[in-house]
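Researcher: I'm preparing a figure for a lab meeting and need a structural model of a single chain. I don't have an experimental structure, so a prediction will have to do for now. The sequence is pasted below. Please return the structure as tokens so I can convert it later.
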Amino acid sequence: MKDFTSHLPGSLLGAITKEIRKDSLPHLTPVPENSISMKTTLIHFWQNRYRRDTAVAVSIVVITYLLASYLDFAERFADWAEPLEHSQIDELPFVFLNAALVAIWFSVRRMRELSTEVAIRKQAQINAHESLYRFQKLFEEGLSGNFIADKDGAVIICNAAFRLMSGMAVRNESAFNIAEALGARWQQIISHTAESHPLDFPELVLERPDKGTWVVMARFRILTYPTGEIREVHGYFADITEQYLAEKELSQLFAENRALAGHALQAQEEERSRLAREIHDDLGQYLTAIRLDVATITKISSRGEASIYLDRIVRHAEYIQIAIRRIIKQLRPAALDSHGLVEALQQLIHDWQKQNPQIGCIYNLDQSCNRLPEAISIVLYRIVQEALTNISKHAHASKVEIELVKKRQNLMLKIKDDGIGFLPSTAVPNSFGLTGMRERIESLHGSFALASSPSAGVTITASIPINYARKSEYVENIIG
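Model: Understood. Here is the structure written out token by token.
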């Protein structure tokens, strides 16, 4: 057996000897200045997987070579295979070498396949993650309220839109039961177990925990297990609460307008009948008396006797003139045309106080509002007139305050009493006075507000834009 060191290269043998000497005399070995940097380099080298595997492979080859050189594997195999020459056992090293090369080829090929498969799987994972991200964004940021609930109605997951429309976000809650919000309708929904056909509701009314109105356009889809048991319920809500309330209010306004139109026609006919009776019973009698007196005068020759009939004709004419003025005043206040809005309102309030001396009236009328466009003046006059009529009939008030001021480009009218008041929600459906006030104001693109509560009186506030009203073509309804 040959000595182990005889097979080592000179440079390697010198390096090993040098290292042995260093290890044998550690206290005399100086510390290299770049030892820290070398250590860092080796750490970085070892952390690189490709370099580390290469270093391990080279180390195995070198160790195998050294062991084979030291133990004489080749000579031992040759001595063992020499008696078996007829069996060609000595060719086994070549066969093993060929097998090693084939294994290396197969390993490289398989590694390429694995690398390709890993790359495909990584790309599939990236695509799946991107798809999941898209669907998550679509679910979370959709305008519709999306949720998944169990068969008992407990919401498992929902998006921000559902949390907002259900009030969860406002109340800072994390749990919501859709079955409690739907009531008996939930049983109808979960009884629909056909997954291929969703259940749609164009208008579904729910009850939120805060008792607020919540109306949605909804779609439900029931997912079941193979056994037919409900697994979960998917729901999609589009909040139409504002649209529902607006349509309800609009429907109410249409109903009020139809009733108001019918009332206006009826009032017009009644007013015509009243005017006809008054003209016939009052003016007609005096005109008939005048006609008879004139016919009698033509037959009288005495001047003194004729003067008696003439005086009576003058008194009849004066009465007819007074009656005509009274009728004209009822149809349209003359002071409004001759003196303006402020003086017309003052006269209206003065006449009303004569009829209702038990009610005090305090008014503040801005003089700058005296000369306004005709459309504004008649609307404000009729509102004050209607309000005073309602107060004298229903309010049981002891004091009334009326204020008319000009603020920037708007006219502000406020009428307040200290009467018994009422709840606006319980107002009589056919309260045409209030409906007429609102319609008059809104015809000039103004705003009308009524505030009241039991024992707190009634406050009516109206605002009319001056600039727009100047261009309006409001037509006065003399019936009121």
